[in-house]
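Appendix B. One record, verbatim.
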Amino acid sequence: MTNLIKKIAGMVLLVLFIMSSCKEDDETRLDDAITAKDFVYNLATKKMSPDNELNGSIQSQAGIKLVYYYLLRHNASPVLVHTDEPVAEKQYDYDFKVPNSAFSDQDMAMVKGVKIMIRHLDNSSSEGLVNVVPFTPARPAMSGFPETLTPEMDGTANPISGTIIAESGIEKIDVYDDRTALGNFELLESITGLDGVGEYRLDYSYVFAKRANQVKIVVTDGVGVTAESIVNLNVVYPTITYSDVFMTAHSTGTNTIFISESGTTLGNCSLNASESNMAFLYYGTGTGPSFYSPTNTTNVAKNFKCDGVSWEISNPAALKATRFRVLVKGSSGDVDEVYSLVENNGIDILDDSFFADRNIAAPTGSSARFDAASAASATIFNLTNANLIYVRIPDAAGSTTYKNALIKVKEASSTTGTSTIKFDIIVQK
């Protein structure tokens, strides 16, 4: 198949001589010339070859004012995907490039070429064609890798083995795990120098890291196509971390609800359906955006709108009474220790004793507000010395059981109803 690609996308230059359209006075004009290769579009990587982008050159004695590039397909009308306007010094000899992004939103399965329309300085025009054919590479095949692994946790290597076969040759193999947060994969090792071998037996020695839940193996073949295998680690943790959670305030309304059981966010149109299981909401007050307990939304519910319709709480008794306490760095050595543990991925247990042993009182606030200008307090957080928030989330409305959580705020903007926030959250299981 690789040889076939090379043949299709050979370096043969096609010089297309194009007769320019004549003016009304039938003035005779010398031909424009477009020099370009034949190209192959990889449907998997969304890139051209043999060069990374479609390119070529145009020589025009009439001078080039504008260049239009139309995608041609067997099953569709031409589509304008890109335009160029050469600067004055390039108007007679122009090297063009069409970025891959011009084709990324197009169905390229039936592509046959790109038509180039040239508008001259005198408004006459000419056209030419660059041939493009589609190519669907076979994905690398991965077999024999375990679905689950019960790791040794004492630093002993855990073997992970399997076979990789790639029709286009193997470029590299990357191994990751998610030790920092569930699903947030971090590169452990990149195996290169494989010389495009078509089959490879991977015998990887994985050393377990605390908080890792999965190992991911990603293979990249010679034309940039990837395949991956996930190995689930059979480890039970007392907490779970969700990384880079993004929320928006009520006016934007797309990520206003946080669900602690899954670490997911929902928007305003899911409010009624989520009344019994939402952990907290994000709301933009006039003095700054805030995390809101569901039971604290009675007076602001009307400002959460779905398609212009205000949220009417259908079952107030189902709302959880989540509570917040901002931890201010420097307020005590115990609080500073919590900051250090979070920074160093050292939180294992988040039960009541974790906080009681450090003389940190239980949360009592029904909201926590972002304010970069005001002094930090138990209810006001910022991005510098008060970006940890102790949260207590009831298992259900009126329940005496709950889960503790720690929010680490990473980014925040304060624009009232369009405010945004990004954070990591550690939740007790």
